[in-house]
User: Which sequence fits this backbone?
């Protein structure tokens, strides 16, 4: 089996233009992909923006050192900084094809909806039932759950084939 950092690079490469906009997005997507059987096995803890893996963050640095991924810092119009990760053609792996549909679904998702979906899923993985997971999600994420974002997050999980009720 290929090393997890190769699978991480390949997940980035499977995105449109081989780019992932945002470190947070990458963290959430890989967490959900792992729940779907993606063979990276990163350990996650619950942080402010939801599930976070220090190992994944470290492997991004390794991928940069190996020339498989570049990371460019940018600023939004509001002055917030974010990162764009771009995979090199060497990162492409045909084995990722079976996960492409799910990667596409997550790439199209609003960042807040993806964050909510990954956080809800983490609560469920921590043995919360649906009601408790929703209460904990709303307590942790507050206004991010407004405007139907929590419902959209559950719909995304449903589309991915993960528990959503």
Assistant:
């Amino acid at each position: 089996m290929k090393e997890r950092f190769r699978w991480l690079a390949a997940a980035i490469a499977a995105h449109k233009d081989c780019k992932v906009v945002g470190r947070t997005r990458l963290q959430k997507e890989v967490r959900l992909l792992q729940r779907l059987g993606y063979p990276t096995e990163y350990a996650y803890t619950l942080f402010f923006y939801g599930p976070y893996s220090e190992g994944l963050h470290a492997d991004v640095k390794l991928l940069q050192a190996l020339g498989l991924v570049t990371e460019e810092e940018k600023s939004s119009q509001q002055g917030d900084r974010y990162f764009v990760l771009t995979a090199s053609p060497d990162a492409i792996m045909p084995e990722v094809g079976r996960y492409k549909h799910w990667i596409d679904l997550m790439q199209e998702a609003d960042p807040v909806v993806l964050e909510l979906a990954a956080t809800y899923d983490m609560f469920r993985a921590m043995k919360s039932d649906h009601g408790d997971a929703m209460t904990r999600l709303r307590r942790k994420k507050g206004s991010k759950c407004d405007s139907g974002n929590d419902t959209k997050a559950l719909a995304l999980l449903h589309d991915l084939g993960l528990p959503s009720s």
In short: The helical segments are 4-13, 23-35, 54-65, 100-108, 111-125, 130-141, 149-160. The chain has seven helices and five strands. The longest strand covers residues 69-75. The domain at 1-94 is CATH 1.10.10 (Arc Repressor Mutant, subunit A).
